[in-house]
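Quick one: structure for this chain?
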Amino acid sequence: MSTTIFRAFILALIVMTVTSCVSKKNFAALQDELSLANEDLGKCGVSLNDYMNRLSACQQERQRLQDKIDGEASVTIKLKDEQISDLRTQLTDCQNQRDKQVEAVGDLTVLSQSASENIKETLNQLESKDKYINLLQAAKTKADSINLALAVNLKGVLSDGISDQDVNIEVDKTVVFINLSDKMLYQSGSAKLTPRAYEILGKIAKIVESKPDLEVMVEGYTDNDPISSSCMEDNWDLSVKRSTSVVRVLQKNYNIDPNRLIAAGRGEYNTLASNNTAEGKSMNRRTRIIILPKLNQFYDLLNPDNAN
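Got it. Here's what it folds into:
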């Protein structure tokens, strides 16, 4: 009986030894898997930090673009509000004038038949004038709206890659002014256009071509530094030649109807700043492109028949 117990003890000891060996191997394998998992986790942490940095950069760029859009929209709304306020003021003035005239007529108590007929005619004339005023206001509103849209369109087209000191666009009543710096348009001291000038004039030409009812005046300006050469007699000559260079490109390179083009030279006069500084001279050396309605359109506005 004791021999049987001894054998059972030996067998149990052998089983425990084998089991212990297998557990150590499994433990080593699990440690290896844990090391690999920790290494993968570290790599994931690095990737996560990279993605977080890229997300932050995208959010900053999105905010910058949103601020830019909000700024441009604010400028457009401000211009429109100013135009609406101006029109309302004009309308109020016209209504006050009409009311005063009607009140003056109403104060007459004793009228002859002839006087009554005269008053009736006067009232008819007032009504006709009201129609004419409304026509002019509608025409002005339309012109202002067109020019505002034109200016916004030009700013959008020309803003890409051009600094503010090289291009300046303004709206004044019924015309749009585009001021271009001479360093961008011309080679120094000459009327020869730079490659950059052709690119800018091409963008302007697309806008002009889409508005066939508008004329284009090109004005050349210089500073007061004297110039005299075999090709240029003085600043008058230089300013005229620069404006005609622009006009020729608009006509020949971009097929703008020459009947819509006007070239003019202003020389060293009509300055924007003092010529006593280099900055002032640079500002005065410019070319101005003026986009404006044709003169016959103004004559049509003044035709009383259009008030009917």
